[in-house]
Protein 1
Amino acid sequence: MQRNAREHPANRQAAQLATLLREKGQTLEEIAVTLNRTGYRTRRGKDFHATSVWRLLNGEPLARTAWFADADSSAANR
């Protein structure tokens, strides 16, 4: 994610909400629907999709949560 996108205030808020929803077990697609329904848009004014939510979570340092570590360890155990 580009630095200006990471620092965009709305993206930071969306990342925080997305992180909370992911911790509650929502899929990336479910999170995208929630973000769109609550009025969030990407920095370029587009709707969120699963891929853009993944990028938002993956690119936002404050959004790196335990679920990334869990996913990494699960993949390593396969």
Note: Residues 60-78 have pLDDT under 50 and may be disordered.
Protein 2
Amino acid sequence: MRFVIAREPGSGRWLQLQLLHHLIGDHTTLEVMHAEVRAVLDGRAHELAAPQPFRNLVAQARLGLMPRRMKRSSRNNWPTSTSRPCRSG
């Protein structure tokens, strides 16, 4: 995840562009990341859990050790059908 921050000319407003990979762009992940960024900006970084290697998440998913809540959530968010064709390109 990357942020680009710039001051808007003439207004003094600060603007932020958030760049992230599509695999972490779901609503739940964004809420967690925004809460973590807010904690760091508020000086509460020490309250955050230690980061875990991504390989741990992959191993848990492959072994079927994902928390039940996450399994249910991801299963319910996949569309079973679509009412319009998907465009490619």
Note: The mean pLDDT is 77.
Protein 3
Amino acid sequence: MLSTKSRFLAESLHEVLYKEGSILDLLEVYSAVKNKKKLAKVYRYLLDEYDYLPNEIIGERYSLNELCAVAATEKYIREPNERNKKERDKFYKLVSYPIPA
């Protein structure tokens, strides 16, 4: 059985993806996921309820830097260490403050 918090996170993630929210909205939802067990529960719920995984939609909709920010966040959730935190923060800065071309 899915906890209320996990269900809320899954529904929030679905809402951001369904409404084509910004990458910052998406990263805000991911930041609420505290460990890999909860991430797995959220992904399982989305697969069971809506028949998709978030990475399928993220890969089609967002730019490379935004994809890297999501991937770095997932990696930090799975292995919360200083190296992964620095990598995540680097991509957050690229997404939040893009360099003009």
Note: The two ends are 48 Å apart (CA to CA).
Protein 4
Amino acid sequence: MQIKTTVQMENQLAAQHLAGHLRDSAPYPNAVATISRVIITYSYRDAGAVGESIAEFLINR
């Protein structure tokens, strides 16, 4: 089972940075930046870690 989450960022650069952060830190996500959105697909088993990575990125900006 896969979960898909979309995160709206303020611009394309921020979306690309979030996608890169997720690829580097979260377990096995497929993060794609499109314009100012990041679409993240991941296993339900990885939901907690992916959520933590998104929060970490947003808090440390």
Note: The two ends are 31 Å apart (CA to CA).
